[in-house]
């Protein structure tokens, strides 16, 4: 998918690309990764139990997730987007003797994971890392491929990130244009300020258009450049939001009549770019499948019944193979997830035809290439959209989608 590759070289730092391997950072801060002997923690989960200085993230679709994962004693899960631990707590509340690696790239979330580890007597294993760093870390800490029963990816930013003005995620409060999910932990990464005040009009347009899905991208990019020429820097969230708001409506506006749709899209585009979110997601989806448990009986059944999948649907659903759950909050995240789960070629435009290569009479595909298109690696179990109530409560501009799939290969 060429659109996701566009920005791989803009800054030289955002260099993950769909075709190349990521750089693994220095993880000397990773002291919390160890297993504890565990005791069963049977307590109801409570999203507000942590200190009040940061509002806890209220997770969505917890019940659906627990039902689909159906945790059993002795199983290991990874919550790859721990946040304040809502989904992990929901899994723990099943009362089963499970362990959860609670991972997040945000040091604040890491702190929350530590707290939960203490409260649950080590059932939670805190980990500070990004998706792209996880496979290396798991290997290093002796987590075998095929040993994980469930992976959760609840994408986007957390309520804590949005609520803290100093992190610059929200246009509702005055703050620096930062938007780094890693916070100061990764001080080599670029900020939204760097993007807004350094990139040229062409690149800004691409970011707003492709990552923000904003039709007026070029107009906003041109205005930002003009503003830089006339007033030097745009350095706060409110300055940027006011500029976008005034351009969107064509006149200076009062608070009561503001339509923040354009500002929402521009901020989304910036956040996705600054955190390299789609490349991270792509890499995470690609690499983490190997770590899920694979029930070989089901793999065999699947391979033998490719022409009649309906007949074996129930067996696959009931199998003990590991499951992946992804909750996405925008079209880009959901499309990328869907293409992984369906086994569509990520590097080419979406098509229901087999890749060009396999249409050519001159080219005979190798067995390996044939296997790649014939055998899908995932079997989709369900796709659930957020309820109207959840959309309103969380002011979502796009209905959140939960996709759950089971490893079959
Ligand atoms: C929507 S929040 C998750 C909230 C969480 N499910 C809860 O119940 O509190 C998304 C979290 O994912 C983290 N995140 C996003 N991209 C990440 C990545 N590539 N690697 C690690 N963490 C990531 C963010 O820092 C944020 O804390």
Quick overview:
This protein is an alpha/beta fold and 409 residues long. The protein has helices spanning 2-5, 62-69, 86-92, 107-119, 134-140, 159-163, 192-198, 201-211, 217-231, 237-249, 261-274, 277-288, 296-304, 309-318, 331-342, 356-359, 367-374, 388-393; strands spanning 76-79, 99-104, 124-128, 150-154, 323-328, 378-385, 401-407.
Overview of this structure, please?
Helix content is 40%, strand content 10%. It is of the alpha/beta class and 409 residues long. It has a seven-stranded mixed beta sheet, with helices on both faces. Helix 4 links the parallel strand 2 (99-104) and strand 3 (124-128). Helix 2 crosses helix 3. The protein starts with a helix and ends with a strand. Residues 1-52 have low confidence and may be disordered. The site of S-adenosylmethionine has 21 residues, from helix 3 and helix 12.
Describe the structure using short key phrases.
409 residues; seven-stranded mixed sheet; globular; binds S-adenosylmethionine; 2 domains; alpha/beta; 7 strands; disordered N terminus; single chain; 18 helices; DNA polymerase, domain 1; Rossmann fold
List the helices and strands and how they pair.
Blueprint: H1 2-5, H2 62-69, E1 76-79, H3 86-92, E2 99-104, H4 107-119, E3 124-128, H5 134-140, E4 150-154, H6 159-163, H7 192-198, H8 201-211, H9 217-231, H10 237-249, H11 261-274, H12 277-288, H13 296-304, H14 309-318, E5 323-328, H15 331-342, H16 356-359, H17 367-374, E6 378-385, H18 388-393, E7 401-407
Parallel strand pairs: 1-2, 1-4, 2-3, 4-5
Antiparallel strand pairs: 5-7, 6-7
The structure holds S-adenosylmethionine (SAM).
The site of S-adenosylmethionine has 21 residues, from α3 and α12.
């Amino acid at each position: 998918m060429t659109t996701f590759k566009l920005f791989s070289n803009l800054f030289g730092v955002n260099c993950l690309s769909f075709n190349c391997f990521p750089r693994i950072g220095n993880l000397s801060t990773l002291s919390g990764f160890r297993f504890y002997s565990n005791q069963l923690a049977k307590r109801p989960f409570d999203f507000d139990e942590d200190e009040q200085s940061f509002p806890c993230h209220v997770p969505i679709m917890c019940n659906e997730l627990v039902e689909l994962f159906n945790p059993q004693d002795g199983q290991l899960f990874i919550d790859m987007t721990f946040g304040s631990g809502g989904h992990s707590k929901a899994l723990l509340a099943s009362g089963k003797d499970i362990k959860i690696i609670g991972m997040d790239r945000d040091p604040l979330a890491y702190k929350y994971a530590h707290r939960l580890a203490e409260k649950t007597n080590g059932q939670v294993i805190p980990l500070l890392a990004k998706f792209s760093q996880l496979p290396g870390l798991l290997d290093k800490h002796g987590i075998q491929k095929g040993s994980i029963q469930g992976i959760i990816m609840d994408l986007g930013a957390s309520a804590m990130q949005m609520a803290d003005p100093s992190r610059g995620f929200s246009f509702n409060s005055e703050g620096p244009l930062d938007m780094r999910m890693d916070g100061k932990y990764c001080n080599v990464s670029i900020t939204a300020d760097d993007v807004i005040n350094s990139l040229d009009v062409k690149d800004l347009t691409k970011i707003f258009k492709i990552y923000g899905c904003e039709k007026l991208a070029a107009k906003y990019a041109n205005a930002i450049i003009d503003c830089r020429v006339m007033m030097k820097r745009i350095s706060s969230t409110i300055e940027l939001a006011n500029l976008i708001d005034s351009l969107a409506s064509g006149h200076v506006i009062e608070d009561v009549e503001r339509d923040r749709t354009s500002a929402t899209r521009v901020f989304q585009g910036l956040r996705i770019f600054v955190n390299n979110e789609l490349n991270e997601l792509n890499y995470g989806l690609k690499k983490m499948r190997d770590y899920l448990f694979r029930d070989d009986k089901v793999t065999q059944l699947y391979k033998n019944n490719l022409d009649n999948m309906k007949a074996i649907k129930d067996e696959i659903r009931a199998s003990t193979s590991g499951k992946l759950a992804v909750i996405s909050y925008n079209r880009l995240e959901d499309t990328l997830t869907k293409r992984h789960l369906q086994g569509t070629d990520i590097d080419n435009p979406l098509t229901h035809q087999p890749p060009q290569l396999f249409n050519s009479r001159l080219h005979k595909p190798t067995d390996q290439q044939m296997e790649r298109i014939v055998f899908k690696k995932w079997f989709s179990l369900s796709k659930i959209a957020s309820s109207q109530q959840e959309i309103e409560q969380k002011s979502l501009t796009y209905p959140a989608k939960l996709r759950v799939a089971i490893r079959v290969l």
